Amino acid sequence: MLALVRLCLLLVCLKGSAAEAELTPPHDLFMLTLNTNYTLTWDWDQSAAGSDSATFTVQYAGNHQLKKRNPKWTTVCAETSGRSCDLTRSGLNYLGLYTVRVQTNMNGSHSVWKSLQFCPDKDAAIGPPSKVQLGVSGSTLDIFITDPQNSSNGSMKEQLNKLYYEIVYWEQPKDGKGSTPMTMTTDVTMLTLSKVEPWTRYCVQIRSHDDFYNKSSTFTQPLCTQTEGVVPWWKIFLFFLLSLVSCFLVVLLFLYGSHRCFQMCKATFLPNEKLPSYIKQHEGDYPCLIVSDCELDLCDPVIVCPESAILMNNPAVDSAAPPAGLDQDRSGRHSRQNSSSSGDSGVYSAGGNSAGLQPKVASTFTDVNPLFNSEKLNMLSMNSEFKVSPVVQDEGVVDMEV
Prior knowledge:
Layout: H1 2-22, E1 27-34, E2 37-43, E3 55-62, E4 74-80, E5 84-86, E6 98-106, E7 109-110, E8 114-118, H2 120-123, E9 131-137, E10 140-146, E11 164-171, E12 182-186, E13 190-193, E14 201-210, E15 215-216, E16 223-226, H3 233-269, H4 277-281, H5 293-296, H6 307-313, H7 315-319, H8 328-338, H9 354-368, H10 374-382, E17 390-391, E18 399-400
Antiparallel strand pairs: 1-2, 2-5, 3-4, 3-6, 6-7, 6-8, 9-10, 10-13, 11-12, 11-14, 14-15, 14-16, 17-18
């Protein structure tokens, strides 16, 4: 009975082994790497499975685990339908040695494992600098390099402490003629190229190197810039002159704009024309204003001097003959007034001679006060209440009452 059971188990194992042998395993395993990014790729013959779809399982283990009786395999991709598996986040040590294997699964059956030995330090490729910048300082050329980055955005110098860079630079061709490329190496990320010509355009390419396993990256894309030199004095003077003229024009435009703005505001809020235009067009059709008594108080004062003072101040009157109708008494009074020895002053009565004095009063206005012009006389004549009456005073001065 025991022998029969053993025979059945043996048949089952042989049948399972035959089914696994019939399923085609993956082939052409390849590890695609860059710095610390690892991706396992493979190929598989679909024609052997017909219309059925197959899946794949990927595992890895350290080579030191393979020496144990029951090694520990870590599954990275289980039952994946693709032809690749990303091992970047699997925690592989850059200096470790690993075995990676892949198996085909279809309808509950499994193929044999296909394995690959992988050492990141030896097999992983390194990339070029992640960033390159050029700076010009006079006639020198400054180069700024950013280290290649690993999967955690750190510098690859954390894994490759002997990493350095190869720099190739050359003069950009002019008329189809270029200079011979020059090469230099450095392990720093900032350097200055002093052996360059001023006012010349140069191009630079850089790649990474590691000598332990003789690994090199590809070159970066060419980056070009032009060097500078000493600026001639005439250029400095020209720039200064242009800047001075520009500042003057800006100030002039500002002042002109401010003046125009002020004039517009003044014309808007404080116009020069006090009367509207339609009133000024008919200005001659309006009657003149009548001067009131209050406005007469604002006129200049008028002083009427006696006839004796007028005769003394007016030579033309003294030399003229006395008008007709004057009697000897008046001439005698003239002589008494002109006499300096007499202390009595003559007194004139308002009656009899008032008609003869009125013309003298009018002439006295114009002779004594020249500022009293014709325009003021017209204003006085328009006032119907204006009256002139001589008043006899003791001192011989004739006053006018208004």
